[in-house]
Amino acid sequence: MLTAATFSASASELPALSASQREWLGEQIFRNECNARFECLTSWNEGESFPSLGLGHFIWYRADQTEIFEETFPPLLAYYREQKIALPDWLESLPSDDSPWLSRDAFLAAQDSPELIALRQFLADTRAVQVDFIARRLTEQLPALLAATPAAIRGELSQRFYAIANASPPHGLYALIDYLHFKGSGLNTAERYAGQGWGLLQVLMAMPEPSLPAFSATAAKLLQQRVQNAPTARNEQRWLAGWQNRVRGYLPAATNE
C-alpha cells in the first residue's frame, strides 16, 4: 500500500514513443476492446445503456443521460476538430455531440446504415489519432491524481506513476494508457461500488511496490473486488475473466511485439 515513505529518485517524464510503438499500442488497444474486429468499432454491449465506439470503445451518451461512467466520445470528437481532422458529414450535422440513438435496438438496427458504415471506416482510418488522444488523457490526469491524494504521499504516487510509465518500454506506458481508458482515473466518486473504486488512482495507491507486475496484479485484484461489489442486476461476473486477461496482458511476456 502507498505510504509516506521516501523512495529513491526515478524518471519524471513519460517515455517518448516511436512510430512503431504507437502502432503497437493501437494494435493492443484494438485487440483488447474489439478483438481487432472492424465491425466492433461501433458497438453497444448487452447490459449497457450506451454505445461504445472506436479503437478504445469510447462511451457516447444521449442527451440528458446520466451514468456513473465517464463519457469519452465527445472529447474524442473535440480532439479530432482540434487536430483539424474532418469528421463524417453526418456527425458534423448533428445539432449537438449527443448520441442520436435512444436505445440499443435502434442502434443495432442502424448497423448497416450509411452513417454507421461511414463512422466505422473513419474510426479505422484514424486509429493513430485515437492512440494520441488516449495518451494525452494520461498526461492530463497526473495533476488531478496528485491533487486527490494527501500531500504527504504525492511524491510517492508520482514516482509510482513514472516508474510504471518507464517500465519495459512501451509496455509500462501501455499499461497506464490502457487502464486509464479501460477503467477510468478513479477520481469520479460516482464510480464506486460499496464505496470502493477500481480506477487508475486506486491501483497506484494499492500496489505493494512500483513495478509493472505489481500494477498488473493489483489491477486484477481490484477488478475482482469491483465485480463482488457490483449490483447483482449488472451481472459483471460475465466480464471478469476478460478484464483480468486484459490486465495480465500488460506484462511483456504476455504480448507479442
Q: Note the total helix count.
A: 11
- The radius of gyration over CA amounts to 18 Å
User: Would you tell me the structural class of the helices and strands?
Assistant: mainly alpha
In helices, the fraction of residues equals 40-55%
State the separation between the terminal residues, measured CA to CA.
32 Å
Give average pLDDT, whole number.
90
- Strand arrangement, major sheet: 1-2-3
- How large a portion of the residues is in β-strands, by DSSP E? under 5%
Largest sheet: 3 strands, antiparallel
User: Strand tally, please?
Assistant: 3
| Envelope shape | globular
Which stretches are low in confidence, meaning pLDDT under 50 for 5 or more residues running? 3-9
Order of helices and strands: HEEEHHHHHHHHHH
**How many separate domains?**
2
Explained architecture:
With 257 residues, the protein is mainly α. The protein has two domains: 36-128, no CATH class; 140-254. Helices cover 51% and strands 2% of the residues. The protein contains eleven helices and three strands. The protein has a three-stranded antiparallel β-sheet with strand order 1-2-3. The protein is globular and about 50 Å long. The relative contact order is 0.14. Mean pLDDT is 90; it is low at 3-9.
